[in-house]
Amino acid sequence: MIVIACLAAGLYGAMHNQISYAVAPEYFHVLKFPQFGIPADLHNRLGAAVVGAAASWWMGLVIGVPVMALGLRIQGNARYFRTGMRAIGLVIGISAICAITTLGLLTLIATPELAAQFNLPPGVTGRVAFLRAGAMHEGSYAGGLLGLLAALFYTYRVGRKAGTGQ
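The structure corresponding to this sequence follows.
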């Protein structure tokens, strides 16, 4: 289940970055491609996907280990697997909702004046778009934390019901 959680997190990151790359390619060219050592011939959507997978696969460990450990009280392999898959889906869904909500909010409120308040890397020309893409990434990580809490609660409830025969 931990391997599945890591794969799901990496895939989520790769897909997430397709949206944020569309919002602000400069976010990747100025910040993420150099940060992750992406070669120049991959400074495109494929490179953004590589960055997303590399930046997020480990969240499968951070989230998966406590959730799957809590799930060990669930009896039956099929029920444990089903609960684990639902927990992974819950985390991904909440992360995506938070990322899109954050992007939507910044699309409504971000102005050049607001973007000027942030210490962005030198040379950024599309400050508002850069801010939107960065906020989307932060929203996704916040969603991961909320998703972890929701997955822990869900897994606990399933395990508790299994223990009481409900």
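Residues 127-164 form the longest helix (38 residues).
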